[in-house]
Design brief:
Length: 279
């Protein structure tokens, strides 16, 4: 459904993407994980037509993003990092405008809008002005808007940025519901637990290059099963172990304070890149 080959983007002397390649099959949730500035948003901007590529190629639903741009654009919906809703319009009006842009009939628009508002639990706020909504409601509305024209692909660029943990998890549930309906999802995030919970596969992106692609569990398995965090001067150092027995033996040999825990996806990112996910 998404095919990218050797995608490159340069801004004068800055190389934002240095030859990225990957494919996302229909119905998969593919997470693009990396620190701020790694090239995540640049990739989505190129795929959505907001930024021109410097090299390489990409296809959405079999259509080239530049040579067949109109057909490619009909295949996706997009939720950006920033809240780009019209604050002075109602929830219904924001969705209705989106449907008009895709030449949907009035009856089809009303039917789809009611369906989506019920789906994202906003049907009772249909006539509310957007400026009256909470941050979590606005995020759910942006996801609903992206789905009005029934796209086969959904781009989610940091969809839960700035939200508290409870609201983030509510958005996660909505994202999984959308995937379960057959939508292919490309998710960019620097919330490590978001990718670990949601993704079928994860790509670690660092300085414009993909370091590795695999399932979250296989990436964690390559790192180890247990982690010990311990203070080393003013820094925290982590040691990884395949078994609890080996971890316990290491602990017994230590004098410093320590924390024993299960390995997570952030540990895998660190082991593959030597960098933290958050900046």
């Amino acid at each position: 459904m998404i095919r990218i080959e050797n995608l490159k983007k340069s801004y004068k002397n800055i190389h934002a993407l240095k030859g990225v390649s990957f494919r996302v099959p229909p119905g998969e949730l593919f997470a693009y994980l990396g620190p701020n500035g790694a090239g995540k948003t640049t990739t989505i901007r190129i795929l959505s037509g907001l930024t021109r590529r410097s090299g390489g190629d990409a296809w959405l639903g079999g259509f080239h993003i530049e040579k067949e741009s109109l057909k490619a654009k009909k295949n996706f919906g997009m939720v950006m990092q920033s809240i780009n809703l019209d604050q002075e319009l109602t929830i219904f009006e924001n969705l209705d405008i989106h449907g008009r842009l895709f030449n949907m009939s009035s009856a089809k628009r009303r039917e789809k809008i009611d369906e989506l508002l019920a789906y994202v639990d906003l049907i009772d706020r249909k006539k509310s002005l957007v400026k009256q909504l909470s941050g979590g409601m606005k995020r759910r509305l942006m996801i609903a808007r992206a789905m009005v024209h029934s796209p086969r692909i959904l781009f989610l660029d940091e969809p839960t940025v700035g939200l508290d943990a409870e609201i983030r998890r509510r958005i996660w549930g909505l994202i999984k519901k959308i995937q379960n309906r057959g939508t292919t999802i490309l998710l960019t995030t620097h919330y490590i637990e978001e990718a670990e919970f949601l993704a079928d596969r994860v790509a670690f992106l660092d300085e414009g290059k993909i370091v590795v692609i695999d399932t979250p569990q296989k990436l964690m398995d390559q790192t180890g099963d247990w982690a010990i965090d311990r203070m080393d001067g003013d820094k925290i150092k982590t040691v990884y172990f395949k078994t609890r027995q080996k971890a316990d033996a290491f602990i017994a040999s230590q004098q410093e304070s320590y924390t024993l825990r299960r390995v997570n996806l952030e540990d895998s990112f660190l082991s593959f890149t030597g960098k933290k996910v958050l900046c």
